[in-house]
Amino acid sequence: MNIINVPGATAYLDTDYEAKAKYAIEAIKTHDMVLIHIEAPDEASHEGSIHEKIRAIENIDKKIIGPVYDALKEYSEFRILVLPDHYTPIRTKTHTSEPVPFTIYGFDSSKKSNLSFTELNAEQTGLKVKKGYKLMNHFIEGDIL
């Protein structure tokens, strides 16, 4: 694995989302897998700021997931996995151990949903993966959960 130093990546609310996407899109050209970690929603939760958490999630969607997804479409085979690394509720301002929601999409996705990507919708699916490495196996192999 290679660590890519992204100018403007601060691990805080002011991180440069566009730069993270740009560097990830470049890395896709030479790497089989790229992981983008964005700390901003977690930091907003630690501060108890719902406004900043929403803003961070909107920035991730618009400035990272959208551009990366658009770039991936030029490849015949790809998958994308989106998830938080842990829960950090605004009310507690600290990490908790609830299962996190996730979504996987790829060229070979046959199961589609019109649901929004929310904690409530994830909970309603009843789908839980107790061990993270098993989720990664499903992601890499393209197994339907």
TrEMBL record:
- Listed pathway(s): Carbohydrate degradation
Going by the UniProt record, its keywords in alphabetical order are:
Glycolysis
Q: Name one GO molecular function term.
A: metal ion binding
One example of a Gene Ontology biological process annotation: glycolytic process
Protein name (Swiss-Prot/TrEMBL): Phosphoglycerate mutase
For this protein, the record's InterPro entries field holds:
Alkaline_phosphatase_core_sf (IPR017850), Metalloenzyme (IPR006124), Pglycerate_mutase_ApgM (IPR004456)
All copies of domain Metalloenzyme, residue ranges: 2-118
Signal peptide interval = none
